[in-house]
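Running this now, will post back.
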Amino acid sequence: MSGSGDTGTDVPRGTRPLAWAVLAASVAQVVAPVVTINGPGSSPGAGSGPDLLITPPGWAFSIWGVIYTAAIVQAVWVLLHGAEAVPRRLQVDQVVLYLAAAVWIAVAGADSSLGTAAVLLVMLVAAVDAVLTARGRVTSTGLAVATGVAVGLFGGWVTAAFYLNVSTALVDNTGLEADQVGWQAVVLVVASLSLVGVTLLARGASAYAAAGCWALVGVAVTGASDGTRPVAVLAVAAALVLAAVALLAWWRGRTTPLAPAT
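Update: finished.
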């Protein structure tokens, strides 16, 4: 097997039972919308609720098809290549992330904005930890790429979805209005800083940054179509900054050895 960074021999390696659990969970999140009353096509961040100024247009949510496919492909690849090629902690993160995505469907069907935000928080923590854990700790180059894409796309989009769901909960449970620019601009800034922060910590995480940029571009399109110029300008600027940071972090990661895994 070819190396991919400093994998760290002290990191507990994955197990085959966990690999099967990851595959089962990755399939469960895809099947969940079909077998619930919420209807086919539901996905975290695409539930019903107020039309916020920072909600990407419907076509942007098509990324879930890519995310689900990448998750299943990566899970199968691990089973075929060998579970010891990935860290055990990554496998646990993936099981939690994928099962939480399935649970989200049931919670969204109950029309609980606070519940969906809570589930998205669990998904966010698991996804970000998966992105950071996978970096430099997968012992096969091809599998490392597949893993980076699978957890990166999931993590970047879930980061954006979390802040969107929190915003929905704020509108449903406080006096904030869905057509107010000020507070949603603040949420957009915080979400963008989160995306940039994780990208820096992961030393590039190109798939994570790409999913984040996709969400930000979607927000910009919404702002432009609604005539909300401040939101559109802010989203475009955030996307450009995120892309630049990802490129710089990736380049520095190529020239700077990874720290030993812990």
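Residues 16-255 form one domain. More later if anyone needs it.
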